[in-house]
Structure formats: structure tokens, C-alpha cells
């Protein structure tokens, strides 16, 4: 068998592989393109793949696209996840899972601009992508753009009104329940929740999880322990006064996100209170640049960005194969990240 070609030598052709394997060029084409309906023995396939490997043959991508009616690309059209450090894990998860199935991820970051999004989808269509993951950098409801309907697609970290549109999103209710349960398991009963004023799935879901965890332990929700703020550092700082100036202040606080927890830390420090000695704190999102660098490091609940990307690709390939089964909207578990704040 001829050894692998060296750099600078001519490109290995399908005819070279056919001669080395002792088969026809058509047989090589059938094998490397995984042509359906063609019956070949395992021995023949093995000889072809051995020749492909030893000669260093690389199939022509355009020819494969024409043969299959689709390319080896999976598209990902996103608003801003490529420029958002923690949400960028969606791309990594999708890319890793695509590679596992022999696909390459083709990413277009649109910054939410309508014309750019339309052009990105047109490009995906021209490249005959296997399908498209349409993603947002935070969990929300979207109106899928018209061009998306022309392609097999799965929504990632977002969803449509139509429950039959395939989507994969974080389980916000489970995450809120988990964050609260972590504090309950440490013996706390006066647990506050600093929530968000924004009307988003995370707001409603995390609050429902908080209430559910209390109910599970036979506790009644005290509405005075739920404070809604703008979900940034300043919001957590101002909420502290509302909670800590009460006659019976909480011993633990579940924060809507890690930025809110950072503001709460500031307020507690100013009052001479320690975390977790005086007040235990749990955040949400696991923004590593915040949670891992607070003092003490913040226990939090992670958004499963990597897993969202992985599941998005799995759903898309199942959809293309006609094997996608209900539910069409999949919930991905939000895991705990335990540090030193509880």
C-alpha cells in the first residue's frame, strides 16, 4: 500500500484510492459518501477506508454536497452569544457534538440586527446546511424569522409560541428550586429571594422554583422576603436595606443572578456582616468572572450553556432523520456549583 502523501505532492484523487483498494471509483464514492441503498461487503468498505487513510485522501466537500443534497455544515445563527463569555459555551457544546457526528459548525453572530440575520440565513441556505440552530444569549421567547422556516431548525436558549417548534431551554423552575433547597438543607428557614423586575422566563421560573422548594418543606412564603430589583449589582445592593432592616431579617438569600449577589455582598460588608456566618448567599448563572472571584467564592446554580448546544445538535439531527419525538421543547437541568457562601 502506498504511504500517506507528503506535503507538496499532488492531491490524491478518488482514482488513486480505487486503485489502492482494488475497486472501482464508483465504489469509493459510494463508501466515502455513505450512499444509501448501495450494498457493499464489510471487507470492501474496510479496504476503501484503509486506502483513504493511508493515502490521506480528502473528499471534495462541494461534490459531497451535490451528492447528498446537503453539506457537512450545521449552521448556528445567534444574536450575541459569540461575544458573551459565559453564553459562548453554547457554541462550544454545539461544535463538539457536531464534530462527533462528522459535521462542522458554521457560526453567524448577528447582534440581533434584522438585515444581518436575514443575510446569515440566506448564506446558510446557499451552503445547503443540514439545519440551523437559532440561539439567543439569554432565555426568552422569540418570533422566528421568516427565512428560518425554509430550513430544518431548532431553537436554543429560546422558544416560540408554537409548542411544536423544536426548542431546548434551561429548566428555570428546577434551578430556582435547587438554589433554595441548598439553603434549606443548611437549616435556614428565613430565606429571602431577590428577584428581577424583568418579565422573562427566568424571572417567573426561578420564583416558582423558590416557592416550590419552600412548599416542599411545609413553609409558607413570606411576600416581604421577596424583593424585585433591576438584576444588576446596584439592585442587590439596594435590596439589602429592604431585607436587613426588617425586625426579623433573613438568614439566607437566594439572588436572581450572580451580579445581584455581588451587590448584596457589598451591602453586607458595609454593615459588618459576614458571608456565610451572618447571611448565607446563593446566586444563579455561574458567571465565573464574578462567582469564582467574590470573597468568599459564591455558591451558585449554573446555566447549562454547553449542554444546550449539545442537545440542540442532537435534536436537529434527530429532526433531519425523522426521529425527533415529543416533547418538542426540552428542558435542561441547571446544576449546582458549590463554593463557600453557604
Automatic annotation (TrEMBL):
Record's keyword terms, sorted: DNA-binding, Repressor, Transcription, Transcription regulation
GO molecular function, one term: transcription cis-regulatory region binding
Ranges for domain HTH lacI-type: 12-68
UniProt cross-references to CDD domains, sorted A to Z: HTH_LacI, PBP1_sucrose_transcription_regulator
Source taxon at top rank: Bacteria
Pfam families: LacI, Peripla_BP_3
InterPro entries for this protein: HTH_LacI, LacI/GalR-like_sensor, Lambda_DNA-bd_dom_sf, Peripla_BP_I
Protein name: LacI family transcriptional regulator
Amino acid at each position: 500500500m502506498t504511504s500517506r502523501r507528503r506535503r507538496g505532492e499532488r492531491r490524491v484523487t478518488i482514482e488513486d484510492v480505487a486503485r489502492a483498494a482494488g475497486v472501482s471509483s464508483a465504489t469509493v464514492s459510494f463508501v466515502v459518501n455513505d450512499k444509501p441503498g448501495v450494498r457493499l461487503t464489510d471487507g470492501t468498505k474496510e479496504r476503501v477506508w484503509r486506502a483513504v487513510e493511508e493515502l490521506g485522501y480528502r473528499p471534495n466537500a462541494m461534490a459531497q454536497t451535490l451528492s447528498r443534497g446537503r453539506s457537512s455544515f450545521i449552521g448556528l445563527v445567534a444574536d450575541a452569544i459569540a461575544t458573551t463569555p459565559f453564553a459562548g459555551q453554547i457554541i462550544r457544546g454545539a461544535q463538539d457534538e457536531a464534530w462527533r457526528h462528522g459535521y462542522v459548525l458554521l457560526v453567524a453572530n448577528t447582534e440581533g440586527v434584522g438585515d444581518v440575520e436575514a443575510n446569515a440565513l440566506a448564506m446558510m441556505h446557499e451552503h445547503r446546511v443540514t439545519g440551523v440552530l437559532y440561539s439567543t444569549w439569554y432565555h426568552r421567547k422569540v418570533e422566528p424569522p421568516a427565512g428560518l422556516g425554509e430550513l430544518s431548525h431548532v431553537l436554543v436558549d429560546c422558544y416560540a409560541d408554537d409548542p411544536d417548534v423544536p426548542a431546548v431551554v434551561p429548566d428555570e423552575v428546577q434551578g430556582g428550586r435547587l438554589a433554595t433547597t441548598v439553603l434549606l438543607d443548611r437549616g435556614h428557614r428565613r430565606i429571602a429571594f431577590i428577584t428581577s423586575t424583568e418579565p422573562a422566563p427566568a424571572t417567573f421560573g426561578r420564583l416558582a422554583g423558590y416557592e416550590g422548594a419552600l412548599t416542599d418543606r411545609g413553609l409558607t412564603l413570606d411576600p416581604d422576603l421577596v424583593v424585585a430589583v433591576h438584576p444588576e449589582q446596584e439592585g442587590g445592593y439596594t435590596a439589602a436595606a429592604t431585607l436587613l432592616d426588617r425586625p426579623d431579617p433573613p438568614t439566607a438569600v437566594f439572588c436572581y443572578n450572580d451580579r445581584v449577589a455581588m451587590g448584596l455582598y457589598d451591602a453586607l460588608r458595609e454593615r459588618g456582616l459576614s458571608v456565610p456566618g451572618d447571611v448565607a448567599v446563593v446566586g444563579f448563572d455561574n458567571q465565573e468572572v464574578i462567582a469564582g472571584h467574590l470573597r468568599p467564592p459564591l455558591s451558585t446554580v449554573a446555566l447549562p450553556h454547553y449542554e444546550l448546544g449539545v442537545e440542540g445538535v442532537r435534536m436537529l439531527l434527530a429532526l433531519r432523520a425523522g426521529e425527533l419525538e415529543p416533547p418538542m421543547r426540552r428542558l435542561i437541568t441547571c446544576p449546582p456549583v458549590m463554593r463557600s457562601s453557604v
